[in-house]
């Protein structure tokens, strides 16, 4: 298989982690006889500093020509501390989602048994959790009209959805549910919001086309509570942009750290794969970032964009083996025990590649 992959390292720890996602893809390509070529481009704060634009035209052109994109993160404390700045790193991320038609964000919450104690939630509640979130990505308050009064004392953000936006992501979520446990929970706030009433009505219509899938509906506030109380009750979760953003960040606590969670943003063309963590400028350059989410994002790319399920599983298994052997980055280490060997970004990345090579050699010999 021949594929062209664009790497957008972005800001903060983005370059530190994406180098390992790219390296994992290179190892897989060599072992399985694929031809992966790579290019790089700027986005976010680094792009603003270099060009004045958070998404330069050159980057967008490269993105449209690629088969898949491996992304790091965008953001900088400069913008967090000055909300009045008009040009912001996140604008680049929102624009590329819109330009590439990336309307569905998939975030798998797959808990490695070895990390049960990395979460603040009791292991007995967590064990066996396997959730796939479908977050709508191009509608809602992120893209609705925004207003600020002349005296700067009043502000509004339009929470807007069109029926077709709900329909297209609902179909993808139901199709995924059919390959899993045939359970789908749609999360909204239909008791208060008109946009959520449209959401629920549309999902109810789509549900009739998938009679083999059990559909439930839950208000966002209850869903946030249930996610912590009994995460195993969920299989596929379908929700809107804002609610999905909040719920999936909350779900990172189930996995023990944002550094363990990968995500895929897809539409009908080029897929966009990234860790869910941010740019984390407080640890940038300190060799503390967890590269595993970027490596797992590469595995998602292999499976979702390229249909290479065996290759994806091989990569996930290598990560699992590293964890089974007791190696951790600081964010997933249990501070109450010294039974784990804590590694930095570089050591952890190298170790995953070492275990991957061993696994690939075993597979080849078999």
Characteristics of this structure?
globular, single chain, 366 residues, 14 strands, ten-stranded mixed sheet, 13 helices, two-stranded antiparallel ribbon, alpha/beta
Summarize the helices and strands and which ones pair or pack.
Layout: E1 2-10, H1 14-32, E2 35-40, H2 45-51, H3 57-65, E3 68-73, H4 77-80, H5 89-99, E4 104-110, H6 123-126, E5 130-136, E6 146-148, E7 155-157, H7 163-178, E8 183-188, H8 194-207, E9 214-219, H9 220-229, E10 236-239, H10 241-255, E11 262-266, E12 271-275, H11 292-305, H12 309-324, E13 327-328, E14 341-342, H13 345-365
Parallel strand pairs: 1-2, 1-3, 3-12, 5-10, 8-9, 8-10, 13-14
Antiparallel strand pairs: 4-5, 4-11, 6-7, 11-12
Helix pairs in contact: 1-11, 1-13, 7-8, 9-10, 11-12, 12-13
Q: What is the helix tally?
A: 13
Distance from first to last alpha carbon = 22 Å
Report low-confidence residues grouped into runs of 5 or more.
Answer: none
Q: List the strand order in the largest sheet.
A: 2-1-3-12-11-4-5-10-8-9
Largest sheet: 10 strands, mixed
Helix content: 40-55%
SSE string: EHEHHEHHEHEEEHEHEHEHEEHHEEH
Give the amount of beta strand, in percent.
Answer: 15-25%
């Amino acid at each position: 298989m021949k594929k062209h992959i664009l790497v957008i390292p972005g800001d903060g720890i983005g370059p530190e982690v994406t180098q390992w996602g790219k390296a994992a893809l290179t190892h897989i390509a060599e072992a399985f006889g694929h031809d992966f070529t790579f290019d790089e481009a700027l986005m976010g704060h680094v792009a603003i500093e270099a060009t004045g634009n958070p998404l330069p035209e050159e980057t967008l052109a490269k993105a449209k020509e690629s088969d898949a994109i491996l992304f790091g993160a965008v953001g900088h404390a400069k913008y967090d501390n000055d909300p009045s700045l008009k040009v912001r790193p996140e604008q680049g991320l929102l624009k590329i989602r819109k330009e590439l038609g990336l309307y569905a964000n998939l975030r798998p919450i797959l808990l490695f048994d070895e990390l049960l104690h990395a979460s603040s939630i009791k292991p007995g509640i967590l064990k066996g959790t396997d959730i796939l979130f479908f977050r709508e990505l191009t509608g809602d308050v992120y893209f609705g009209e925004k207003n600020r009064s002349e005296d700067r004392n009043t502000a509004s953000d339009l929470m807007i959805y069109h029926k077709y936006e709900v329909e297209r992501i609902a179909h993808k979520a139901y199709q995924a549910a059919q390959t899993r446990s045939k359970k789908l929970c749609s999360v909204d706030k239909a008791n208060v919001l008109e946009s959520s009433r449209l959401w629920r009505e549309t999902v109810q219509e789509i549900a009739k086309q998938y009679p083999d899938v059990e559909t439930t509906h839950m208000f966002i506030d209850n869903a946030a509570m249930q996610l912590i109380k009994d995460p195993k009750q969920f299989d596929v979760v379908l929700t809107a942009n804002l609610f999905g953003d909040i719920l999936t960040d909350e779900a990172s606590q189930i996995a023990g750290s944002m550094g363990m969670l990968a995500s895929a943003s897809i539409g009908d063309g080029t897929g966009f794969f990234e860790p869910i963590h941010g740019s984390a400028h407080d640890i940038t350059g300190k060799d503390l970032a967890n590269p595993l989410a970027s490596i797992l994002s590469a595995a998602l790319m292999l499976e979702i964009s390229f249909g290479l399920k065996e290759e994806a599983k091989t990569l996930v298994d290598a990560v699992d083996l590293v964890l089974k052997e007791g190696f951790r980055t600081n964010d997933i280490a249990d501070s109450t025990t010294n039974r784990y060997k804590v590694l930095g970004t570089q050591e952890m990345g190298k170790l995953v590649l070492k275990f991957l090579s061993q696994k690939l050699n075993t597979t080849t010999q078999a």
